Automatic annotation (TrEMBL):
InterPro entries: 4pyrrol_syn_uPrphyn_synt_sf, 4pyrrol_synth_uPrphyn_synth, UROS/Hem4. This is Uroporphyrinogen-III synthase. Its EC number is 4.2.1.75. GO terms for biological process: protoporphyrinogen IX biosynthetic process; uroporphyrinogen III biosynthetic process. GO terms for molecular function: uroporphyrinogen-III synthase activity. Residues 14-241 form the Tetrapyrrole biosynthesis uroporphyrinogen III synthase domain. Catalyzes cyclization of the linear tetrapyrrole, hydroxymethylbilane, to the macrocyclic uroporphyrinogen III. Keywords: Lyase, Porphyrin biosynthesis. Pathway: Porphyrin-containing compound metabolism; protoporphyrin-IX biosynthesis; coproporphyrinogen-III from 5-aminolevulinate: step 3/4. Belongs to the uroporphyrinogen-III synthase family.
Length: 246
């Protein structure tokens, strides 16, 4: 087995290191970097406009990184009278360490559906929810929260910027390295990977095993033509490593 890890930033590098230490050939090919989002300067004002008990939802570790840095630079701190949520346990732990705030997250699954099943999400009439996320992204949570009576505000903390590679050269390196397994951690990465690999290599790409971190990504991959899709129970690197080694 040889694995192509598309997860961006340090988390992707860490997974590659873990695989290498376990005797597995692994390559890191992040398809974009994260830059400051267009709305980041509005974060202190948006937080101050919330009422006591309102909700703040951080969609990812990148949302945590950019928002924490902005508040530190502007001299603001996270309000203790708000309720904070993430989709995943690792993001919740990371945010709690950075902000010293209690952070809630769904235990059963790391997705918007599980987040919406939490008890605090059942009565949202008049509740304000501030979503801190990247450019684009899934609208499901925001749509469902609005249907339940919440006022939802979305703030772009970061944006994805494509990395320029020689597509043919990088694809050739992957094939020569024997890559037969792909790790995909978001819908955006899946789409970027399809667009990245040249048309004449799409058969090779879709004959690789694909490890996804959510049923939504797995279904999207199957619709795009992948035959072998493996679902990792969670998105953190230790769970991905266990899934890959099994």
């Amino acid at each position: 087995m040889a694995v192509l890890v598309t997860r961006p930033d340090e988390r992707g590098k860490q997974l590659v290191d873990l695989l290498n230490q376990s005797g597995v050939v692994a390559l890191h090919l992040p398809l974009f970097t994260f830059e400051s989002g267009n709305d980041l300067g509005d974060l202190p004002k948006k937080l101050n406009q919330l009422n006591t008990g309102d909700y703040v939802f951080l969609v990812s570790k990148s949302a945590v990184d950019f928002s924490v840095r902005t508040l530190k630079e502007t001299g603001f701190s996270w309000r203790e009278d708000l309720q904070y949520f993430t989709v995943g346990q690792r993001t919740a732990q990371y945010f709690s360490c950075q902000s010293e705030q209690i952070t809630r997250y769904p235990i059963s699954q790391e997705n918007s559906e599980a987040l919406l099943a939490l008890p605090p999400m059942q009565q949202l009439n008049g509740k304000q929810i501030l979503i801190l996320r990247g450019n684009g992204g899934r609208e499901y949570f925001a749509e469902q929260a609005r249907q339940r009576g919440a006022n939802v505000d979305i703030l772009e903390c970061y944006r994805r910027e494509p990395i320029n590679y020689n597509r043919e050269e990088q694809t050739s390196i992957c094939k020569r390295s024997g890559v037969d397994t792909l790790v995909v951690t978001s819908i955006e990465i899946l789409q970027a990977l399809i667009e990245f690999v040249p048309e004449n290599e799409q058969n090779w790409l879709k004959n690789c095993r694909l490890v996804a971190v959510s049923p939504r990504i797995a279904e999207a991959a199957k619709r795009q033509g992948w035959q072998t899709v493996i679902l990792s129970p969670k998105a953190d690197n230790q769970t991905l490593l266990k899934t890959l080694l099994s």
